[in-house]
Amino acid sequence: MFNNIFKKQRYYFDSEGLLVVDMSPSSAVHYQEAVQAATQDAGFSGEDMVINFGPQHPSTHGVLRLEVVLEGELVKKVTPHLGYLHRNFEKHAEYIPYNEIVPYTDRLDYLAAMNMNLGYVLAVEKLLGLTELPERVEYIRVICAEFNRIASHLMAIGTFGLDAGAITPFLWAFRDREKILDLFEWLSGARMLYNYIWVGGVARDLPDGWVEKAKEFLDYFEPMMVEFNNLLTHNHIFIERTAHIGILPADVAINYAATGPVLRGSGVKWDLRRDQPYSIYDRFEFDIPVGEGMYGPVGSAFDRYWVRIREIEESVKILRQALDQIPEGDVFEAIPRKIRPPAGKEAYFRSEAPRGEIGFYIRSNGSDIPDRVKCRSSCFVNISLIDEISRGQLVADLVINIGSIDIVLGEVDR
Amino acid sequence: MQELIQAVQNSQTFLSGLSEAALAIIFFVLFGLVFATVAAVCALVFVYLERKISAHMQDRLGPMEVNTGIPLLKNIGHGWAQTLADAFKLLLKEDIVPNAADRRLHLIAPFILFCAVIAAFSVMPFGEKLVVSDMNIGVFFVLAITSFSVIGVILAGWASNNKWSLLGGMRSAAQIVSYEIPSGLVVLVIVMQVGSLRFNDIVMAQAGGILHWHIFQFFPLNLIAFIISFLATLAEANRAPFDLPEAESELTAGFATEYSGFKWAIFYLSEYANMFLIGIFLSALFLGGWTSPFGSLFGGFFDKPGWQPVWIILKAVAIIFLQMWLRWTLPRLRVDQLMYTSWKVLTPFAFVTIFGVGLWMLF
């Protein structure tokens, strides 16, 4: 059908803005000629080159596709095209009971599945008015969320190094992340998609000796971060590569509704764990690291990276306190037998995931199945900044900028 | 070479009847085959070395599984046969050529690169007599012939008809042309001191132990020259932190994106052969070449001719280790920083060393 409409034309743009070239024998147009004509019609000069960055590109952190307009190696325009990992989470959620949605939230930000579980579960608890949970449950949730934040940030800083061409830091980060995954495996039986935090409780109690092992890990881990910093963070080439690019001023970050390390990297001290404390975060001592512009302007790619490094240290602080204070108790006692909120109730809850604010809006219809679930994804919002911070820089900087935003496509596409 | 031909003609074998030209051709083909084989085997060894070195730097073990397969010795050998298995895999793989590619250029590009590297081995002094052609312009020949490699890379980038390949090829052209200047300049420093472009003259000028090596002469000018030369050749070989033409995180695989199977193996082989070439080249120029570091110690035992290839290969391997160490430690430079390093840091310092050594020799 489309071919008929555009029969006279050698090329056309489809609904997504993709260039489609008519390759049928009758049109007999050389592909390159058509592409050239199309790029000229689209307002680019003959010197410009439109290039597809992804979805099968090693540094798009998943299946992101960027349509990049290049002049030589200079980036003139970046358009992200999403949807390659779309799994219909929100529609699915309208057909399954509240507690069965939890495993689906694992697949949102699969690098921080605990935080996704927690965000959704807290939203459901708000809907149910379930506020009194056993102390032990709250502590276990915070411990899991912070461990997963460390694991997720390790992945972020490791792949950020990889984007800059440093391979060893990536494997060092993975080595340590692996140990956290081992702890989670012991705890929940899964290494990546845990389905561990349930409405009103957690899936199972901490195994015997888990707390000691976790403390052992923290003792091991802190010197490793020093080593990591010596290898990558304070490397002169790395600083030169990252500290002067991808500048994101604070007002732009706020206008785009950026959250998480992307926002804090621009110097805005905003963290839901401190500003709208949920669970038991108000009991712990920790700082909110912000971008300081150590080696260049505030809000550079380096600042976002540095915020993540510092957040790992802060998470270790929280973990040490939580592991020391964790009380005994029954973790199953508050789990509701049936989750059936009255019809027409709605709740929105946002929490601080490693990549920014994850928000869940839930509306009930009186049954055990939600009427509507909406997920506010931080990565989806943050990726829209890519054009803003990459324009006028080189291809190599574009790669660094994507890495500094640190997206997980599972959460972007949902 | 001429001595060899004379010797064969004077011998009483069936070859003695052949003309000088025919014998020369036979020897050239023979040496070519030998060096291509040696380079290929060396490349295999270095690939294995790189895997193991990188693995241990990254807290991994690297390949451990592919060993002899003999029942009792199955698990012994640290996966030494892995690169062999990979080489066979590459030979058997399908050779995919993109539809829109220029098939002929796509085919010859890797071989131009390979030939440029292998040809340079013909003047490399593995020993006093172990050199195919001890030309009087040996150093110049190496600089000239290795410049050919840029043609191979550009052709590969262009013929693939892929935008990423093109970017990689263009980067490579700019990079190799810029870094040839400092690497050529610092060679002058050594040539000035020896007064000859012949490799064996340069090596013999450093005979007599470690303290006579060029790197320790005219301190610290020659040391600076060595560092410049090391960095510039690193960049010419497209090794990290100067591996922009094949920057994996930016350009997928740069100029080699559209290559697979045997052609890709040739690219890989050339890279490791080039590393070996650089190792030999730098050790001949700065680290005493095939002379022993002990000089007349131990009764001159280590100075015997049999040790010569051992010494130069050991020195080359040390330089290769240094290259690998850098690769697995440092992030990659950006294009503008790469140019900055070449034009504003290495080239001025190269001139300073030339000037300094010149003054030193005058007074």
Explain this structure.
The complex is a heterodimer of chains A (414) and B (363). Chain A is an alpha+beta fold. Helix content of chain A is 46%, strand content 13%. Chain A has 17 helices and ten strands. In chain A, the strands form four sheets. In chain A, strands 3-4-5 form a three-stranded antiparallel sheet. In chain A, a hairpin with a 2-residue loop joins strand 6 and strand 7. The radius of gyration of chain A is 23 Å and the shape is globular. Chain B is mostly helical and 363 residues long. Helix content of chain B is 63%, strand content 0%. Chain B contains 13 helices and no strands. Chain B is globular. The two termini of chain B are 40 Å apart. The mean pLDDT of chain B is 84. The A-B interface holds A 31-32, 49, 51, 57-59, 73, 161-168, 171-172, 175, 231-232, 235, 237-238, 240-241, 394-397, 399 and B 54, 57-60, 100, 163-164, 167, 171, 240-241, 243-244, 247-252, 328-337.
Output the structural class of chain A. Answer: alpha+beta
**Largest sheet of chain B, described in full?**
none
Which percent band covers the strand fraction of chain A? 5-15%
Report the helical percentage of chain B. Answer: 55-70%
Number of strands of chain A: 10
Largest interface: A-B, 31 and 30 residues
- Tertiary shape of chain A: globular
Q: State Rg of chain A.
A: 23 Å
CATH level-3 fold name of the largest domain in chain A: Cytochrome-c3 Hydrogenase, chain B
Query: Sheet bearing the most strands of chain A, described?
Result: 3 strands, antiparallel
Number of domains of chain A: 2
